[in-house]
Write a structure and sequence with these properties.
Blueprint lengths: L4 H15 L4 H29 L37
């Protein structure tokens, strides 16, 4: 006697029905809830993707901010540049 794929599937289904029957409704409910959440998240991602595709036409203005002056750095070259002060004392 040789077990094929569909034989194993029938055995697994029978074992689930016999031993896990009380837990099957809870498992089905949990699976349905997970599928609903997944579908709503996919729907939200599709909706968000459509709004992100429109480019912004307003220019963005900004300014360059240098590192703040720390005590003990006066007179050193490069003061006020975009390089952080050295950590050695």
């Amino acid at each position: 006697m040789r077990l094929e794929g569909w034989h194993l599937i029938i055995i697994i289904v029978l074992a689930l029905v016999l031993f896990a029957a009380p837990k099957l409704p809870g498992m089905a409910r949990s699976l349905g809830q997970s599928m609903r959440i997944f579908k709503s998240e996919v729907r939200e991602m599709k909706k968000d993707g459509k709004t992100d595709a429109t480019p912004e036409t307003d220019p963005v203005e900004g300014r360059v901010v240098n590192h703040p002056r720390t005590p003990g750095t006066q007179g050193r070259p490069g003061e006020g540049t975009d390089v952080p002060p050295p950590n050695r004392a």
